Sequence to fold (248 residues):
Amino acid sequence: MKPIQTAIAAALSLTMLGAFAHQGEHKGGIKSALTKGVSAPYDIHHTKITTEGNIATFHIAVSGKAGASKPARTGKLAGSQVFSYVWPTTIDPSTVGFERGAGILAFAVTSHPDFDDTPLYDENGDGKLDNDGDLWHSHWVVLSKDAACGKDALKIVDIPEGAKPKLPKTWPGLRILIDSPAYSPIFKGDTLEVKVPFDDIAVLDNASFDGVTAALRINESVHSPLVCVANVFKVASGNLSLPGKVDR
Fold:
């Protein structure tokens, strides 16, 4: 892209205050204009997925200090919040151990002080497995729309009573399509990165993605739907069109 074209594109993007994103000099990544009114730790300005060998690196950069803001503790599960950085993808859920075609597969980094959903791991090293949900940690989740969460709102797909779907080995036991694989998020300044191994990295060859920051909410009834996407802070593309391409 020529310098004058780059300047024009940047000016237009700033004018629209981040309503849309454009793909710039970063291969396959999504560049987003900073958005007035979005908290700096969640104001996405660049999102990308790159690969090296069988490892994919999920990357988000924001306008402030990434991970600096977490939800307040409420003391109860019902109605509690989950803050999250999310990469929705076109990767089929079967790639990571769910049923084929189960919904939208997304990789997420979350924090939620009122419950723990990584029962296989002791992230804070205190010898207890059930008290470190407030620390940033990673998940695979399967998303779908549900009117019970609001018009056009997404939820993490619930597992109906009695159903026995295919699930990953590190499924945490919640009645939703979620995996807790313990891939460690790394926060550094304005960036968040997570390295994720794949058995067959070729599944990312034609994959598309987007970047989202959001607050999820545990339903007051703690029942289906269990987890709704309640407040979207920002979508990297502006319209969840998943324009990003994995840089192989």
Observations:
- The chain is about 5% helix and 35% strand.
- Residues 44 and 62 are 4 Å apart (CA to CA).
